[in-house]
Amino acid sequence: MKTSNKHLAKPFSKNLLKSPPALAFILALLLVFFVADIYKANAATDSDDHQHQEDEHTEESGSHGHGNDEKHEDEEGTSQIEDAMAQTVGIVTERSGEQTLHQTILTYGRLTTAPEQTSHVRARFSGVVTSVRGTIGETVAAGDLLAEVEANESLRKYSIRAPIAGMIVQRHANSGEVTGDQILFSISSFDNLWAELRIFPSQRSSVAIGQEVFLSIGEQKVKTKIEHLLPAGDEQPYLIARAKLSNDLSMLSPGSMAEGRIVIDEFNVDVAVKIDALQILGGRTGVFVKHGNKYEFIPLIVGRKDDSYAEVISGLKPDTEYVTQNSYLIKADIEKSEAEHEH
């Protein structure tokens, strides 16, 4: 059986093109694809722009971060402390300037009283002690009553009075005791004391009467002069340098150990800072200079030193305000800040 060719389907494209509904569908589909392509292109463009903005933001952030780093670097070695807080923690400042530095030799010794400052009190006539007023540790004035004695021969009472002002350091008298020529009281004056310093043979040629000596007795600091040089006695191999010092405030006592620095030379310098002000930061020696509420570490080159000051060769001008006490607190604050920044 033969099939007629007229019943065969015509090409698909031709049938669709001749059908209005199909043609409309194809056009609509193409329009959808076209719009989709445009959307994708715009989306890609927006994505590139967004990425570019993020890159710029990242660069700006990096730039800001670098700026902070530069700011931190600018502030390295500095600490901000308000004046009230500085006063509370004991930060003290002074101004740099000229100083006289001293070359010294170190000696040791003790404080003692001079023979003329101690009086031993006896009874004028033998007899019986009838009353005693003075006691050990009591401070008396010249003429104060110490005791009364009834004389053996006359049976009359007479008074024993303090010959000098000072402190009663010994007492050997009680009521009812018989007196002879024994010492009843010993009185010493401590208004002035003497430092007796040992001068060994290696130091002998550098020490002379009249030289200044800086004494340290505990926390007390005293400046005086050598008044005597004498043998130590008992065939000891050293001399004794004696220097007088005032004790008006009774802050010193006989027997105390004394450290003496005898000045053998001195020299003037244009700029000096206190030894206690020097700190080491980052391997460099320097001081903290005050600018308002900011303290900045300034490295120095120092030269000659004595016990109190160091000569400044370079790094600091005269009349610069710098920290002299408790500068270690500022150093600790800076080191803490730098450690936190590294982490």
Automatic annotation (TrEMBL):
UniProt cross-references to CDD domains, sorted A to Z: biotinyl_domain (cd06850)
Ranges for region Disordered: 46-79
UniProt keyword Transport, yes or no: yes
Pfam family, any one: CzcB_C
Superkingdom in the source lineage: Bacteria
Keyword terms: Transport
Gene3D superfamilies: 2.40.420.20, 2.40.50.100
Cellular component terms (Gene Ontology): outer membrane-bounded periplasmic space
Compositionally biased tracts (Basic and acidic residues): 47-71
CzcB-like barrel-sandwich hybrid domain mapped to chain residues: 117-188
Gene Ontology biological-process entries: copper ion export; plasma membrane copper ion transport
CzcB-like C-terminal circularly permuted SH3-like domain ranges (all copies): 271-331
InterPro entries referenced in this protein's UniProt entry, alphabetically: BSH_CzcB-like, CzcB_C, MFP_Cation_Efflux, Single_hybrid_motif
UniProt-recorded Gene Ontology molecular function terms: transition metal ion binding
UniProt protein name: Efflux RND transporter periplasmic adaptor subunit
Species of the source: Thalassolituus pacificus
Lineage of source species: Bacteria, Pseudomonadati, Pseudomonadota, Gammaproteobacteria, Oceanospirillales
